[in-house]
Design goal:
Strand order of the largest sheet of chain B: 2-1-5-3-4
Largest sheet of chain A: 7 strands, mixed
Number of helices of chain A: 16
Radius of gyration of chain B: 16 Å
Low-confidence stretches of chain A: 1-11, 15-23
Mean pLDDT of chain B: 97
Distance between the termini of chain A: 59 Å
Mean pLDDT of chain A: 95
Strand order of the largest sheet of chain A: 4-6-2-13-10-11-12
Number of strands of chain B: 5
Structural class of chain A: alpha+beta
Number of domains of chain A: 3
Largest sheet of chain B: 5 strands, mixed
Shape of chain A: globular
Number of strands of chain A: 32
Distance between the termini of chain B: 52 Å
Oligomer: heterodimer
Strand content of chain B: 15-25%
CATH class of the largest domain in chain A: Alpha Beta
CATH architecture of the largest domain in chain A: 2-Layer Sandwich
Shape of chain B: globular
Radius of gyration of chain A: 27 Å
CATH architecture of the largest domain in chain B: Orthogonal Bundle
Number of helices of chain B: 6
CATH topology of the largest domain in chain B: DNA polymerase, domain 1
Strand content of chain A: 25-35%
Order of helices and strands of chain B: EEHEEEHHHHH
Helix content of chain A: 10-25%
C-alpha cells in the first residue's frame, strides 16, 4: 500500500497546495494515513462509470415533461400526438403510476407525476421513452397539457397571510419551531439587531441527475443511479411502484458530486416506470438546465435577529426569527427548520433565548438539503450581528466571539450539554494569528485588482477588508431519528493472500468514504488488501451521505463488523493454539501473542473458510425537542470551524477579490488527513460562492438563470490561497474520536467573506450573495 | 441530414454516419460509447468535456463532429499509453486533485493542452513576456489557463501542484 504522507499526529495543517504536515508516524494505508483513492486512476482517465455513462444495448431514453407554470390546474392531458412520433415506445402520465402517486423524504407529499395541480415551475407532468433522446424530447413537446393558471404564492414572507392561496391543505406552514430558554423579559444595556436575507443556492454538482433502470425477469427492476442514500430511495420507490423491496433493487452508479442535492428522488421512479412499461432498459439523464429544476435547492432565508449584551460584550439574550422558503413540497424542510432553530444562534453561550423558525410552502422551486443544512443561512445573521455587537461595545471581532464562545461543559440553547471539545476561542485565535497576505502593491498589475482585466480603473477605489466567522454544526441525524449504518465484512484467503471485503450501502460521492472503509478494515484486521464491494441494497442501509455523518456512522459500522470478524478468527486461533483469546492479536496476516511473537498464520486459521459478519452501528440516541420550549438533547455531535477572510473590494465598481481564506477546524480524528483538507477546501469554496456569486434568481415563481453562464460557481481563479489548520480533539463518544468534517467549512466561510467585504466598503450588506450594486449603493 | 465521417479517437479510426448537428461530445459518448469526456453543461461553460484536437484543447460539446475531419481526438483515457497512466494521471491521483472526479478527465486534457501551449510559447492573459519562446507555467499561469474547467468539489488547491509537478518534469517550470 502506497501512502502519500505515511504518518500523522495530533494535528495536521496545510498551506495552499502543500501536503499536510504531520508529526507522528502511522502505518501506511491505515487510519491516520492518506492512502490513494482506490477509484482514483479510473476517475482521472475517465473510465469510472458515472450514472450518465451507463449503457445497455437494448436501452431506450426517457425524458420528463415539466410544468411551465408555478401554479396551475391541469384541465387535461392529451398524449395521442406524442404517441404517433416514430421511435416512441411509451408516454406516461399520473394514471400510469401503479402504486401511490406520492414521494418525499420526510412526508410523501409530492406526486411522481402531477395530478390535477402543478405547484412549481418544473414539476414533472408526463414521461416519454423513445429510441433517441431527441426523439423523446420532440415527442414530449407534442403532449398537449391544458393548464388553468392559478394565483401563485411566490413571496414566502406572505405565505402565511390569511388571504394567501394554499399551496397544500390545510395551509402553507411546514414547520414552526419555537424555542424559549431563560428569562423572556430580560433586558440589556447594549442592544443590536438586524435583518438578513439569503438567496437560493444550488448544489450545482457537475454530473447531472442520471440513472439506468433495467426491468428484471421477476417483474421487478434494477436501478443504477447516482444518489446519496440508496435505501431511502428504495423505500419511496416501493411505495410509488407498488412493489416489495426485494423487487426494487438499487445499485450506486458513479456519483458526480452531491452536496445534498441527491437526497431527494429525481429520475428514480420515472425511469423505473418507463422500464417496467416498455420492458426495456431506460436511461434518463438531465441536461444542465433540467438539473436546475430536477433537484431541491438551499432554502432562501429571511432572518431578523437581536442580541442584548452587557457593556463588555457578554451576551445576555438573543431573539431571532427565521423564515425559510420551502417551495412547493416538504422535502427536508422540517429538518432544516430544526437546524436553523436549534443551532441558529451559533456557537455562543446565551442564557436567555427566544427563537421562532418557520418553513413555509410557496410555489417556488422546492428546497431541501444542501451542505450546511439550515446552519448556513443562520450563520450569515448571527455572525453579522456579532460584528455589530463588537462595534457597539468597542471590541474587535475575534475578542467578542471568544468572550461568548461555547466551551466544553456548557449547555447550548436547547439545554443540551456540550460533552466533548468545543474549541471556539482556540479556533478563532488560530485563524487570527495566521500570517496575513501582503498588502496590495499600489503599483501592482491590473490583473491583481478585483475584476482583473475587467477592472477599468487604476485601483484607486480598492480597499482591503478582513472578516471573521465561527460556527458549529450538528453531525448525523437529529431530533430522535433512528440514524444507523450497516456493514458486512468478509475475511478469506485468496491466492495465498488474506483479503477483506467490505460491503456497505453508504454512498461514495467523492468525499472518499471507500478509502476510509479500506483504512478501517486494514487497521482492525491487519490485512493489506481490502476490496470495496459495489454499493447496493443487497446489504442493510448505510444511511445518508449527508450531515457529515458517513465516516462516523458507516465508519462505526465497518469497525464493528471488523471487530466481529476478528473475534471469530481469534476464537478459532485460541481454540487450536490452546491459549486465551485475550492474549492474541491479528496483524499482518499473522496471529500474534502478547509479546508480539508470531504464533500462527491467518491462512492456517482460516483454511478454506471465509469469516463474514454484518453489524449495524447507531450513534447515541437523540431526542425530539419540547414543542413549547424547544428544549432537549436534539443532536449527537457538534463540529466547530472558524474562518478568516481577506478581500480587496473596489468600492466604486463593486468588485470583490478574495485574497485569502484561512480556516481552522476541529475534526476529532483525521482518519484520512488529505481527504479532511479536501473537504475543507471544497466546503469553503461553496460558502464563499454563496457570499459572492451563487444565486438561483426566482421571480414570480420562475427560475431566471438555469445555466452555468448565469449561475456562477467559483473557478480556480476565484479561489484564494487557503491556510488550513486542523485540530484533533477526539470525541470520546465517536468511533476513533472522529468528528464530522464536510459541512462546517461551508457555514463559516461565507459569513467571514461577507464580513470582510463589509469591513472594506463600510456598508451593512444585509443580503447575500453580495452584488456589485450592494457595495456601491447604486 | 446524415453525413459519413471517420473519427480518429485515441489512436483508433471510427467510421460512422452522424446527423450533421451532432456535437463531437455526443458522437463520442452516444455513438462510439467513449465516455471519458463528461457532459456537465453541453454549453461550453464547465469544461468537463474537454478533449484534445491534434493536441489543442477544445470543449467537445462546442465542436460539431462533422468539422473534426482528420484531426486526432485524444481523451484523457487516450493519454494513457498501453494502459500505462500518463504523468498527469499519476500526478492528479497523488495530489488528490479531485473528489467526485466528474470534471477530472476534462481537467487532465486541459492540463495536457496547457503543457503544449507553454512549450509552444503561447502567452496567456497573465504572461509577463508575451514575446518569449516558451512560457513558464507558474501557479498564476496554471490558474489562468485552467480557469475554464469548473470543479464543484473545489479541488483547485490540489490541481495547481498536480499540474505544476508535471510541468516541472517536462521543463516548462523551474
Amino acid at each position: 500500500m502506497r501512502g502519500r504522507s505515511g504518518h500523522s499526529g495530533p494535528s495536521v495543517s496545510t498551506d495552499a497546495g502543500t501536503r499536510p504536515a504531520t508529526t507522528a508516524t502511522t502505518t501506511p494505508g491505515r487510519i491516520g494515513d492518506s492512502p490513494l483513492r482506490p477509484d482514483g486512476t479510473l476517475k482521472v482517465t475517465g473510465e469510472f462509470a458515472y450514472a450518465s455513462d451507463l449503457w445497455h444495448d437494448d436501452m431506450v431514453w426517457g425524458v420528463t415533461l415539466r410544468s411551465p407554470h408555478p401554479h396551475a390546474r391541469i384541465r387535461g392531458i392529451d398524449i395521442t400526438e406524442a404517441l404517433t412520433v416514430p421511435g416512441v415506445t411509451a408516454v406516461l402520465t399520473a394514471d400510469d403510476v401503479p402504486g401511490e402517486n406520492a414521494f418525499g423524504l420526510e412526508h410523501a407529499d409530492q406526486p411522481v407525476l402531477a395530478v390535477e395541480f402543478v405547484r412549481y415551475e418544473g414539476e414533472p407532468v408526463a414521461l416519454v421513452a423513445a429510441d433517441h433522446p431527441e426523439t423523446a424530447r420532440r415527442a414530449a413537446a407534442r403532449i398537449r397539457v391544458e393548464y388553468e393558471v392559478l394565483p401563485a404564492v411566490t413571496d414566502p414572507r406572505h405565505a402565511m397571510d390569511d388571504d394567501a392561496p394554499a399551496v397544500h391543505r390545510p395551509g402553507n406552514l411546514v414547520r414552526h419551531l419555537q424555542l424559549r430558554r431563560g428569562d423572556q423579559s430580560v433586558t440589556a444595556p447594549v442592544v443590536v439587531s438586524l435583518d438578513v436575507e439569503v438567496g437560493m443556492q444550488d448544489q450545482a454538482f457537475l454530473g447531472p441527475e442520471s440513472g439506468l433502470a433495467v426491468p428484471a425477469e421477476d417483474g421487478g427492476v434494477d436501478l443504477y443511479v447516482a444518489t446519496q442514500w440508496l435505501h431511502v430511495d428504495q423505500r419511496q420507490m416501493c411505495l410509488a411502484l407498488g412493489m416489495p423491496p426485494e423487487k426494487v433493487r438499487l445499485h450506486l452508479a458513479g456519483v458526480g458530486g452531491a452536496f445534498g442535492g441527491r437526497e431527494d428522488l429525481s429520475v428514480h421512479v420515472h425511469a423505473s416506470l418507463l422500464a417496467l412499461r416498455t420492458g426495456k432498459p431506460v436511461k434518463m439523464s438531465y441536461s444542465r438546465e433540467e438539473s436546475f429544476f430536477g433537484h431541491v435547492h438551499r432554502h432562501p432565508a429571511w432572518l431578523t435577529y437581536e442580541f442584548g449584551a452587557e457593556r463588555d460584550g457578554t451576551l445576555v439574550y438573543a431573539r431571532a426569527r427565521v423564515l425559510l422558503d420551502g417551495g412547493a413540497y416538504a422535502s427536508s424542510t422540517a429538518a432544516v427548520v430544526g437546524n436553523a432553530g436549534t443551532l441558529g444562534l451559533g456557537p455562543y453561550r446565551i442564557p436567555n433565548v427566544a427563537v421562532d423558525a418557520y418553513g413555509v410552502f410557496t410555489n417556488n422551486p422546492p428546497c431541501g438539503a444542501m451542505r450546511g443544512f439550515g446552519c448556513v443561512q443562520a450563520a450569515f445573521a448571527h455572525e453579522a450581528l456579532m460584528d455589530e455587537l463588537a462595534d457597539a461595545v468597542g471590541l474587535d471581532p475575534v475578542t467578542v466571539r471568544q468572550r461568548n464562545g461555547m466551551r466544553e461543559g456548557d449547555r447550548n440553547i436547547t439545554g443540551q450539554l456540550i460533552d466533548s471539545a468545543a474549541p471556539v476561542a482556540e479556533l478563532l485565535q488560530i485563524v487570527a494569528d495566521l500570517p496575513l497576505p501582503p498588502q496590495r502593491d499600489a503599483d501592482a498589475d491590473l490583473r491583481a485588482l478585483p475584476g482583473s482585466v475587467g477592472n477599468t480603473t487604476h485601483g484607486e477605489g480598492v480597499v482591503r477588508g478582513v472578516g471573521y466567522a465561527v460556527t458549529y454544526k450538528n453531525i448525523g441525524f437529529s431530533e430522535g431519528f433512528d440514524d444507523y449504518s450497516t456493514a458486512r465484512v468478509r475475511l478469506e484467503m485468496t491466492g495465498g493472500e488474506a483479503v477483506a471485503t467490505v460491503h456497505t450501502a453508504a454512498a461514495e460521492v467523492g468525499q472518499g468514504l471507500i478509502t476510509v472503509e479500506q483504512q478501517i478494515c486494514r487497521t482492525e484486521l491487519g490485512v493489506e488488501r481490502v476490496v470495496v464491494h459495489p454499493k447496493n441494497t443487497a446489504v442493510g442501509s448505510g444511511g445518508s451521505t449527508s450531515a457529515s455523518r458517513q465516516t462516523y456512522v458507516t465508519g462505526g459500522a465497518v469497525q464493528a463488523a471488523c471487530v466481529a470478524v476478528r473475534d471469530v478468527v481469534l476464537a478459532r486461533a485460541a481454540a487450536s493454539l490452546g491459549r486465551e483469546v485475550s492474549q492474541l492479536r491479528l496483524d499482518g496476516e499473522k496471529i500474534v501473542g502478547a509479546s508480539g511473537e508470531v504464533l500462527t498464520g491467518l491462512a492456517e486459521v482460516l483454511g478454506e473458510d471465509a469469516v463474514e459478519e454484518t453489524r449495524e452501528y447507531r450513534h447515541r440516541p437523540t431526542h425530539a425537542i419540547d414543542p413549547e420550549t424547544g428544549q432537549g438533547d436534539a443532536h449527537v455531535q457538534f463540529a466547530f470551524s472558524a474562518h478568516r477572510a481577506v478581500v480587496d473590494v473596489d468600492v466604486e465598481l463593486g468588485l470583490v477579490k478574495v485574497v485569502a481564506l484561512d480556516t481552522a477546524q476541529d475534526v476529532g480524528k483525521a482518519i484520512n488527513p488529505d481527504a479532511v483538507v479536501g473537504q475543507i477546501h471544497g466546503g469553503s469554496a461553496q460558502g464563499m460562492g454563496l457570499a459572492l456569486m451563487e444565486e438561483i434568481v426566482v421571480t414570480d415563481g420562475h427560475v431566471r438563470n438555469p445555466s452555468f453562464t448565469d449561475y456562477l460557481i467559483p473557478t480556480i481563479l476565484d479561489m484564494p490561497p487557503m491556510q488550513v489548520k486542523v485540530l484533533e480533539y477526539a470525541d470520546p463518544h465517536a468511533p476513533y474520536g472522529v468528528r464530522g468534517v464536510g459541512e462546517p467549512p461551508t457555514i463559516s466561510s461565507g459569513p467571514a467573506v461577507a464580513a470582510a467585504v463589509r469591513a472594506a466598503c463600510g456598508r451593512p450588506l444585509r443580503r447575500v450573495p453580495i452584488r456589485p450594486e450592494h457595495i456601491t449603493g447604486t | 441530414m446524415d453525413s459519413q465521417i471517420t473519427l480518429r479517437v485515441d489512436g483508433a479510426a471510427h467510421p460512422l454516419a452522424v446527423d450533421t448537428r451532432t456535437t463531437l461530445l455526443d458522437a463520442l459518448r452516444e455513438r462510439l460509447r467513449i465516455t471519458s469526456p463528461k457532459k456537465g453543461c453541453d454549453h461550453g461553460q464547465c469544461g468537463a468535456c474537454t478533449v484534445l484536437l491534434d493536441g489543442r484543447r477544445v470543449n467537445s460539446c462546442l465542436v460539431l463532429a462533422v468539422t473534426v475531419g482528420d484531426a486526432e481526438v485524444t481523451t484523457s483515457d487516450g493519454l494513457a499509453v498501453d494502459d500505462v497512466p500518463h504523468a498527469l494521471h499519476r500526478s492528479f491521483v497523488e495530489h488528490d486533485a479531485f473528489q467526485c472526479g466528474y470534471c477530472t478527465p476534462g481537467q487532465v486534457c486541459s492540463a495536457a493542452g496547457i503543457l503544449a501551449e507553454a512549450r509552444a510559447g503561447w502567452p496567456s492573459a497573465v504572461t509577463p513576456d508575451v514575446a518569449a519562446d516558451t512560457v513558464e507555467l507558474t501557479d498564476d499561469e496554471i490558474r489562468e489557463r485552467m480557469s475554464g474547467n469548473l470543479c464543484r468539489c473545489a479541488a483547485y488547491a490540489n490541481i495547481v501542484p498536480a499540474v505544476a509537478d508535471v510541468a516541472r518534469a517536462e521543463g516548462v517550470r523551474r
